[in-house]
Amino acid sequence: MATTAIHAPAHAAEYPGEHTGLWSWLTTVDHKRIGVLYLYTALGFFVFGGIEAVIIRAQLGAPNQHLVSAEFYNQLFTMHGTTMIFLAIMPLSAAFFNFLIPLQIGARDVAFPRLNAFSYWVYLFGGLFITIPIFFAVAPNGGWFGYAPLTTRAYSPGLNIDFWVIGLQILGVSSLAAAFNFLTTIINLRSPGMSLMRMPMFTWMAFVVQVLLVLAFPVITIALVFLLFDRFFGTNFYNTVSAGADPLLWQHLFWIFGHPEVYILILPAFGLVSEVIPVNSKKPLFGYPVMVYSGILIGVLGFGVWAHHMFAVGMGPIADTFFGLATMLIAIPTGVKIFNWLATMAQGSNRYNTAMLFAIALVGLFTIGGISGIMHSSPPADLQQTDTYFVVAHFHYVLFGGSIMGIFAGIYHYYPKITGRLLDEKLGKWHFWLMFIAMNLTFFPMHFSGMLGMPRRIYTYDSGQGWDLFNAMSSVGAMIFPIAMLFFIYNFFKSRRSGEIAGANPWGAGTLEWTIPSPPPEYNFAKIPNVTSRYPLWEGKEADHESARINAQTGKTADELGIIIPYSTIKPLFVALGLVVMFCGLIWTKALIAIGAATMIIALYSWLLSPLEPEHH
Amino acid sequence: MATAAHSSVVHTSAPTHHHYTTLGLDSRKVAIWAFIGSECMLFVSLISTYLIYKGRSVIGPFPHEAWTDPSTGQVFKPILNIPVTSASTFVLLMSSLFMVLALAAVQNKELPKRTSGERILGNSKLWLFMTALAGTTFLGFQAYEFTSFVHEGLTIRRNLFGSTFFTLTGFHGAHVTAGVIWLSTMLAIDYRRGLTSKDSLLVDICALYWHFVDVVWIAIFTLVYLIK
User: Fold this and answer.
1) Long-range CB pairs of B171-176, under 8 A, 24+ apart, other chains included
2) ipTM greater than 0.95, yes or no?
């Protein structure tokens, strides 16, 4: 691969062609550039959600503090959860779906490039819609799960929950549109020879996630529609007082979505470390088929365990037993994955670069979170732990220790493919170790404060309950995160300018995305590759090498190669804008509904009636 | 050929050449099935909520039983009018037949038409129009139904039955409306430049959506109207 490095451009250029400037970003339909848009936006929201967390921990650092009011504290924890789940982790995963799926399956773009741009713009506008209210202290304040009837107009009269309901509805449109797109891409745009059982593990996990999105998001959509109707039109779905509504309806609908959502958050990270570990252990992934089956099984079982979030409501012994057992079952496929990663690393010639450290951190930290998860699967134990900091510790070990660590592993691993330059390893290791220490110092003591009975979501507490030390530790840990992130941000921008040139395959990896130059040309593959094995660069036959040789060439434009590139277009942005303006009309003036709908319909028709790409000659 | 396509005002997003696909199917056909899968979960959520709340309304009117307001003594009739809705259901089911004929007409566009029967069957404009007309008729029935229910005292705010019934059937009605707009667009394209067998896929996708909306109505009609 050293030869490829020599042929790499002297400086990591933008994507070749005439694609610079703001307009080109507003109109792009290139999956790689949309991936980059997702990456920057989601990292921005990640930092924003992190700042909210730092304020939360500052408030909780010592007993009886009044840094923020109780009311604003409610907004902080609600927006911290909502931001991290819907605006940071999911879109960070989407950044990788965008950038990697077509490259890993040997496609030139996603199935619907313009729909892809639409998904991004809806995400951006929806994210701003739900985030901006916090600057005016009217942010959502009902928790990320928004339990009704608490969130109905009778108990939450302000605008806060309106922003939440409408914001999530908008973000759902983005997620669903993206899911149809990626699902179709993975099913239908695999290059010749790329059978399902040769797909890279990241694409496999992405595949499972798209199915979960397609089936889980409609349920939250309906739950939110009910809440929206209750709040705006006076329906009775959650009216438990005078209409006899079931107080558990929201909880069931929400968690039928909410538990698959947990796997929507973790499986992409599992996929990323399944790419990082084999490459850095220089061995194929151990037990590939079993990894596939366990990923599918996690997805299937994920639809049968939602009520383990509701043990405390008193569903009775039969339901409790069923959901407890189903939850314990999930430990099996998850455990399989953990052991397969360990077996991949065992006796490998391991290279401990930053990506690998983050990946190993996922394996360890997710296991801790997984084990505390199994503790909750037993209803009697869960009754002790529910709504305490023990649960907060659990889901931060799986979401931070799992998802975020996996995503950073992916960022360090794929940054050179995205930008053409390597991230600085020394700064990277500072980032990793600071983040690792911060993560454990913040979240490990929460197991103890939780076991000692500290409830979630309280904005302050009295001393003398044994919680002071653990809270102080958590708060000190939380203050280290910003320092770690400064290392990362500095590294990110410094390496973008002056990082070492990466070349096509800096890590000596085996999958298709490493056969093409870094950054990839607009058309990805000069020749659609023929695939004969799971790791074409490691164990491929002549057909693989032939494709790889052709695709490694740099400097050719799409025109020279006779490859048709879709037109850039601003229309998806306008459809997204119209959609969001229409929803804004529910909160401000009704005229916006008409303006938004008109914009959306005109832009949509204009989009659908215009060709995607130039005619083929 | 190329200039002819350029000069016509109406383009479609149909690719003018075949990209390689794994299944050999157009990606839009794969995507519409994914979309329909997602829509199933949407309607399952709506229908489940209706069934869970069935019989739990604190006050009337009710779907199948009369109700006397204890404070005023006013008598409310059973709300659902099964004969009228059976008629609208029949119209909607017929629309699926028209849809099949419309698709067949587009697919067989270039076949020679010898008899007047073949010419009628091969008239894609006629069958697209009939499908859209049947859909619109169904919507008319629904508008009548909603208005008469409101007159009889059932509003979306009245009780759990009102909230769940109007939301469920309203969502279905919105889907039919979207379908009618889609069909009208197809009809407009047919008038503008004429649909040919190359456009089968566009009509095929529209038809899959239309049949799905019909099937959902069969579930709603059975579970909400027929089962007491």
Assistant:
1) B171/A225, B171/B42, B171/B43, B171/B46, B172/B43, B172/B213, B172/B216, B172/B217, B172/B220, B173/B139, B173/B142, B175/B39, B175/B213, B175/B216, B176/B92, B176/B135, B176/B138, B176/B139, B176/B142, B176/B213
2) no
